[in-house]
What does this fold into?
Amino acid sequence: MAATHTTENRTVLTFLAHPDDAEILCAGTLVRLRDAGWAIHIATATAGDCGTMTENRWNISSIRTKEAAAAAKLIGATYHCLGEGDGLVVYDKGTIQKTVDLFRQIAPGLVFTHAAKDYMLDHEQVSLLARSATFLYGTPNISAHPLLPGSRVPYLYYCDPVEGLDPLGHAIEPTTTIDISGQMETKSKMLACHASQREWLRAHHGMDEYIDAMKRAAAGRGGEIGVAHAEGFVQHRGHPYPQNDLLGELLMKGT
Ligand SMILES: [Zn+2]
It folds into this structure.
C-alpha cells in the first residue's frame, strides 16, 4: 500500500466548476466531515456568470457568489472562487497556476472534484485542474505561496457525474457511497441558498424541481446501500495518491 489512513491533515476542499455544484454533489458528506472535526473549504472555478436569463454577467456573478458563500456559511465552511467564466473553463497554464495557488493556500488533505467524464465540459476541465493541483501543490517550486504544514498529495475523490451517467450514458459505479440520510435537511437548506438558480432552471430547462432532482439522485444512491439518501464517489488511485479509502474508513460505519 503506497499510503495509509491518516487523520493528520483534517482539511477538505471541494473544487468544482459552478456555484451550487457542491451542494448538489457532496454537501451531505461535507456535513459529516465537519461533524468529524474537519475544516471545510468550498471552491468554484466560475462565479456562475451565465446562470441567468435576465441579469448581466456582473450582477449574476455577485448574486451567485453571495448565494454560495451563504450556503457555505451554513456549515461553517469557507467559500472561494477562481473567477473563471461559465463555459470557458480551460486546462491551460494560467488556470493551472491559479488552481495550484488556491490549493497551496488551503493545503487540503482530502479533495473532491468532478468526474473526469461529465455532461458539461466545464466539469471535465475542472476535474483535470483538480488532478493537476492535487499532484503539484506540495511541490516547493510550483507556487510563490509558502508551503503550509500538511501539504502533500491529498486523497482525491470524484463526485458523481450529473444523473450518475457519463456523457455516453454509461452508469458510474461508486467506489465509496456515503450515507447522508441524517444530513439531507442541511444539504437541502444549502441548495436552497441558490435561489437564483431555481428561477434560471425553470426558464432554461423548463424544470421547477431544483431541490427535488437533488433528492432523487441522493435517494438513488441511498437505495444501492439500503439507506434513504447517499452520495457516491470514485476514488482516484493513480500513483502517487493515497490508496486506502479514507472517506469510507471515516464515514461508512454509519451516522
Ligand atoms: Zn456545474
Summary: The chain is about 40% helix and 15% strand. Confidence is low (pLDDT under 50) at residues 1-5. The pocket of zinc ion is lined by residues 17-18, 21, 120, 123 (CB under 6 Å). The first strand starts at residue 11 and ends at 16.
